[in-house]
Structure of Dihydrofolate synthetase:
Amino acid sequence: MPIDLGLSRIALLLSKLGNPHLKANFIHVSGTNGKGSVCAYLTSLLLSNTQDFKVGKFTSPHLLYRNDSVTLNNVPISLNIFTKVEKEIEELNLRFDIGATEFEILTATAFQIFHLENVDLAVIEVGLGGRLDSTNIIEGAIINSQNKIIKKGVLATGITKIGMDHENLLGSTLKQIAGEKAGIIKQKIPNVIDGTNDAAVLQVVKNKAAELGSENFVVTPASNDIVTSFGIVNRNESPLRGCYQLQNLSVSLKIIDLIFPFLKNSYPEKVKFSNQNVIKGVQDVEWPGRLQSLHLKYDSSKPSLEVLLDGAHNGQAALELHKYLKQKYNEEPITFIIAVTKGKDLTPLVSTLISPKDKIIVTKFGSVENMPWIKANEPQDLKQEILKYTQNVVIEPEVRKTFGLVEQGEHTVVCGSLYLVSEVLRLHNDNT
C-alpha cells in the first residue's frame, strides 16, 4: 500500500491493542537529514548514563533486516518476537478492516514491543514529515512542578536539519515542510532545533512552540566544545564523521540536558548521569551506512575493496557528502556507485556531487522487504541526468557486479539511497 499520511488508522489499530503507545516515555525526532544520527546519539547517551533502565529505539527504514528497525538497549529485537507481534497486528488490521498501511503496522509493532518489554524510554524517529506521520500518535507527558513524570509520554522533541524532500507529500516550500516537521511539538513539552536551519524554518518552529506553550531551544554550537550541564563534551569524541555531526550531537546533548531532571526525579535509582558517562555515550555511538568506511567483500573469491558508504539521498545530504569528500580527497577523481529511489528530484542530488573527472556506475537496488512502494529509479533515466555533468557514465543494473568495474586504489563512494547502502552491507555480510 502506498504512503498515506494520517493518524486515524494507527489510532484505531493501537486501541485494539490497549493503547501501548500511552504506556512509555518517549523522545520524538523529526527533520529531513540527521534524525537517525540524533536517535543513535540519544540511545547511546541514555544507555551510558543509566542502569537497569530499558531504552527502546524505532527508526526507519530498516538498514539490513526488518527487525533492526526496533531495538532494545541498542540490540535489534529478535526476529521471532518481531514476527510474532507483527502477525498479531496484521490479523487485527484484517479482522477490523482498518486498512492500515505497512508503515502503520510497523509503527504499531514497535509500540507493542516496547510495551511488552517494559521499556522505560523509547527514542522515536519520524517516518515521513511529522504532523500526520503515524509515530505522531504519541502524546506529551505530564510533569509536575517537582519535575517528576506523573503521566508517561513524550518528554522532549527534537528537530534536525530541514531541507527539500518529499515535496509531493509535505509541500513545495521550506516553510510548508517545516510546518509538517514541527507538527511533532507537544503542548508544554520542550523542543530542540538545529540552529543552522534556514531563518524561515526557525521562525515556523518558534511560532509552533509558542502556540503550544512549549519552550523552544535553538542550538548553534560556537565550537567543537559543546557546553552541557554535565560539563564540556568535544565533538571529536564521536566516531561519526562529517561536519554536520556537530549539530546532530549538540541537539542530542541539549535534549539529554532537558530531560535529565525528569528522569532523575522519576527514576532516582536508575539514573547515573555524569560528564564521564556522557562522553562514553558519545564515544560508543554507532550509526552504520553514513560516511562509513568499509573493506567491502563483494565476492568471496576476490580481494576486498575499500569503499565509503553514505545514504545521501537529497540535495542537502549530497552537499554534506560533497564537503566531506572534498576535505578527504581534495580534488581527486571519485568513482561513484549510485542508485536513487524513484520519484526523487535528481538534479540537486547529482549536480552537487558529480564533476566531469568523476567515474559513475549507475545501478538499481532490488525490492525492499515490506516496503513495496519503494522502487529504484531506472538506471537509464539516472544516466541521462548524470550525463549533464560528466560523460564518464556506465550502467550495471546488478549491484554485486558494479564492484567488478572498480579498480583497486580508486576512491569509491556508494551513495544516492539508503536502500542501496543496505543492499551493499548485506552483500558484504554474505561474503564474510
Summary: The first strand starts at residue 25 and ends at 30. The CA atoms of residues 35 and 111 lie 19 Å apart.
